[in-house]
Amino acid sequence: DSGVTQTPKHLITATGQRVTLRCSPRSGDLSVYWYQQSLDQGLQFLIQYYNGEERAKGNILERFSAQQFPDLHSELNLSSLELGDSALYFCASSTGGTGVYEQYFGPGTRLTVT
Amino acid sequence: AQKVTQAQTEISVVEKEDVTLDCVYETRDTTYYLFWYKQPPSGELVFLIRRNSFDEQNEISGRYSWNFQKSTSSFNFTITASQVVDSAVYFCALSDTDNTDKLIFGTGTRLQVFP
User: Fold this and answer.
1) What radius of gyration, in Å, describes the C-alpha atoms of chain A?
2) B39-54, pLDDT tens digit by residue?
3) Fewer Cβ atoms within 10 Å of its own Cβ: the N or the C terminal residue of chain A?
């Protein structure tokens, strides 16, 4: 158990809908990252937050947005869903700050868009 | 641009065999970090190791060992005396030290260990 929690574990929804994925980092970690794992694109970085502020953006679609709250949990919002958004979405956390630290991953949320 | 290549898509071995998973990386930075993660059939990503670009010493952890060679831009992972529980997809990843420590993953190598 990495200490990172993600809910829900599975999500099935229809095209055009909007969903919210939730992540709680390990205790004491300030950085949260979101990654998408799909058969087509592999594991791709979406976005990073550090202590409530956005730090970096990767290949995140405009239909997707995220935020990190004062209690450091994070939410990834996916809207106007398309079939191609079906994937496993991972949240990871690290101590953050300057330097590069190991990232610990949550169990993932498997999103299926029908 | 940074890139990680794991040329071996799938490897099958019989228990107790040694197996090496290859990882080749590209980066223009002189300071960077390399990682290995394991993704068992249950789906979670498990951190195995982090190595910075200034530390070329090989590392051993139980049956796992890692060989880092800057001259060939490789960071290979060897499992000695493999076991069925080692069956998983293994990902190599790279992080540089720009303003983000995002991970750039390779495509993964699926290891199947048969009894």
Assistant:
1) 13
2) 999 999 999 999 999 9
3) N
